[in-house]
């Protein structure tokens, strides 16, 4: 290695450290008697999709009007009852989209649209213009309350920030009154943005102050949305913060507690789940977690997590490939192959032992378990989200006989005896090692055919005839190619196979004992083919398997015998 090399020696690598001293640990709150760890989620929360706002704001190329419409239609079809449709005061495109769905009558009954707005007078006015004529509207007002932002961004005291929020709330109340008078149902949502980076007592204080102005009731509740705008701690800390908030909020019964998590530490879904356990009722997030930086809470994962626990997710996610297609086309962000419940590989096993267990689990479910899904390594039935059981097993060099058996059975209808699988599996493995990648079902089939069906060897069946000798016996005359020449053979037996074997024994002059014979139909209809699988054993009781495939059952049987003899002679 030359002295300028940038490759570190092991010692250099050990001595080097990351600049972790730059960062301060997040200080958890002191909530000693927390109760949330004992709670179990037993029903779906109120879902609110923020794909068209938080998700859209984070895209390299924001959605076009047509893409927004496509995403909106999908969200409606998935069963969302609350959709944040934009930030109309901040973007003309969002304003136009909101007008379009209101004027075009595109908001189905039961759906509430939500619009985001900062705590500023002119933006509140504009937002009210945007939602004129809508039936049900969540007016989502926010301002940052975090300690850091108060210090470095706004330079405002706690009192000043509370005044900003309450003044804005009063304006929303005043400016939405004409909408209410015209028949719109207006719900206020207030978000103390960066809630998790705010002192908890202050977060409660500002929300209580907003409630004082808005005057929610048990019938007409306010939504208090508690964002983890940047995820800064483990999800249990978020749950503590939610439990703290709920315990300390005055007039709790007049508020819906909503969560809005981001995913900077990769635990956005976990934080929302633990937050639900801590007493929240509503979840904001996006499909596949698209959103600022590392994204928002992934609603698909969260809903499917409920589904996998036997809870109605109250979203209809059975066409996952369709959901992926719309999401990819609108966001231009590909869904990762390991995206929970949706990625190409999430129901796939390559490892041999996993494949074996899946195969056995599938048979257990098919052969009449109590209807419950009990398949190792598969948390849900892929068919429930538009997947196919076939994709659960794919074969590469890590796979074993279980995987090969699964592919042959589920793609080609062939069930092989264990002995053949034991012989075939290392051959398949060798092919995949040479290939270096995944073996497609066709390659596995061709390898099987070359090895057991169209076996190269000294013998080939050219032609045969069967004649009935009497009620008990049949005669077989056949023509074989043997090496370079052709040979006619004939023999008698209790049936065609017996007669053919007798003819072969006479000609080949060696023992030929057929064992393990089985034959079945490969498929149905006029193109039906039979497969014959058997082995012959020699003097030393060694077995040689051969397989024959033909539309004619006798031909299939004869071919399998010839294949077995050729494999013996190889
Ligand atoms: O992440 C966040 O805090 C937000 C607010 C506007 C709710 O998106
Ligand atoms: Zn957000």
Structure description:
The chain is an alpha/beta fold and 570 residues long. The chain folds into three domains: 45-331, Aldolase class I (TIM Barrel, Alpha-Beta Barrel); 352-453, no CATH class; 459-569, 2-Layer Sandwich (Double Stranded RNA Binding Domain). 40% of the residues lie in helices and 18% in strands. It is built from 18 helices and 14 strands. It has helices at 10-15, 51-57, 65-78, 92-103, 121-130, 147-154, 158-181, 200-214, 235-248, 268-277, 299-307, 320-331, 352-366, 401-412, 418-435, 441-453, 496-508, 553-569, and strands at 46-49, 82-86, 112-118, 136-144, 185-193, 222-228, 255-261, 282-285, 459-468, 474-482, 485-493, 513-521, 530-537, 543-550. The strands form three sheets. The chain has an eight-stranded parallel beta barrel, surrounded by eight helices. Helix 10 links the parallel strand 7 (255-261) and strand 8. The chain is elongated. It starts with 9 loop residues before the first helix and ends with a helix. 3-methyl-2-oxobutanoic acid is lined by residues 54, 116, 142, 191, 193, 225, 227, 229, 260, 262. The site of 3-methyl-2-oxobutanoic acid (KIV) has 10 residues, from strand 5 and strand 6.
């Amino acid at each position: 290695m030359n002295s300028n090399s940038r490759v570190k020696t092991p010692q250099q690598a050990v001595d080097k450290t990351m600049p972790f001293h730059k960062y301060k640990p997040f200080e958890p709150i002191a909530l000693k008697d927390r109760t949330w760890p004992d709670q179990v989620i037993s029903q779906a929360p109120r879902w609110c999709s923020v794909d068209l706002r938080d998700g859209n704001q984070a895209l390299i190329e924001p959605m076009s009007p047509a893409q927004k419409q496509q995403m909106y239609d999908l969200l409606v079809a998935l069963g969302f009852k609350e959709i944040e449709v934009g930030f109309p005061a901040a973007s003309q495109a969002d304003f136009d989209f909101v007008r379009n769905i209101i004027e075009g009558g595109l908001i189905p009954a039961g759906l509430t649209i939500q619009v985001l707005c900062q705590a500023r007078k002119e933006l509140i006015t504009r937002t009210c213009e945007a939602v004129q004529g809508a039936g049900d509207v969540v007016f989502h007002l926010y301002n940052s309350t975090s300690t850091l932002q108060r210090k470095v961004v706004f330079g405002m005291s706690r009192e000043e920030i509370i005044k900003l929020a309450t003044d804005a709330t009063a304006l929303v109340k005043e400016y939405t009154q004409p909408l209410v008078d015209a028949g719109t149902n207006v719900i206020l949502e207030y978000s103390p943005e960066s809630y998790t980076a705010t002192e908890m007592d202050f977060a409660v204080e500002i929300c209580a102050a907003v409630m004082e102005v808005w005057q929610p009731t048990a019938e007409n509740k306010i939504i208090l949305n508690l964002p983890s705008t940047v995820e800064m701690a483990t999800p249990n800390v978020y749950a503590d913060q939610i439990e703290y908030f709920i315990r300390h909020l005055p007039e709790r019964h007049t508020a819906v507690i909503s969560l809005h998590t981001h995913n900077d530490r990769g635990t956005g879904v976990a934080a929302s789940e633990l937050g639900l356990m801590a007493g929240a009722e509503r979840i904001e997030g996006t499909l596949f977690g698209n959103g600022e930086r590392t994204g928002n809470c992934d609603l698909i994962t969260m809903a499917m997590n409920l589904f996998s626990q036997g809870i109605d997710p109250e979203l209809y996610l059975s066409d996952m490939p369709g959901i992926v297609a719309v999401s990819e086309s609108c966001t231009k962000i590909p869904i990762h192959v390991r995206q929970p419940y949706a990625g190409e590989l999430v129901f796939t096993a390559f490892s041999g032992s996993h494949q074996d267990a899946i195969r056995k689990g599938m048979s257990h479910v098919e052969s009449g378990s109590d209807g419950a899904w009990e398949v190792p390594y598969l948390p849900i039935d892929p068919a429930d989200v538009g997947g196919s059981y076939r994709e659960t097993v794919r074969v590469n060099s890590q796979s074993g006989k279980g995987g090969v058996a699964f592919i042959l059975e589920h793609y080609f209808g062939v069930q092989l005896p264990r002995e053949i699988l034991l012989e075939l599996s290392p051959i398949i493995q060798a092919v995949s090692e040479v290939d270096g990648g995944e073996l497609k079902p066709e390659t596995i089939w061709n390898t099987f055919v070359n090895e057991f069906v169209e076996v190269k060897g000294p013998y080939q069946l050219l032609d045969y005839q069967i004649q009935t000798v009497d009620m008990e016996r049949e005669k077989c005359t056949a023509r074989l190619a043997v090496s370079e020449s052709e040979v006619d053979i004939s023999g008698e037996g209790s049936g065609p196979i017996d007669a053919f074997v007798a003819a072969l024994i006479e000609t080949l002059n060696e023992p030929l004992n057929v064992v393990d014979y089985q034959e079945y139909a490969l498929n149905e209809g006029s193109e039906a083919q039979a497969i014959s699988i058997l082995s012959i054993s020699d003097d030393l009781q060694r077995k040689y398997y051969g397989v024959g495939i033909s539309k004619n059952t006798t031909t299939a049987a004869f071919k399998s015998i010839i294949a077995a003899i050729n494999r013996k002679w190889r």
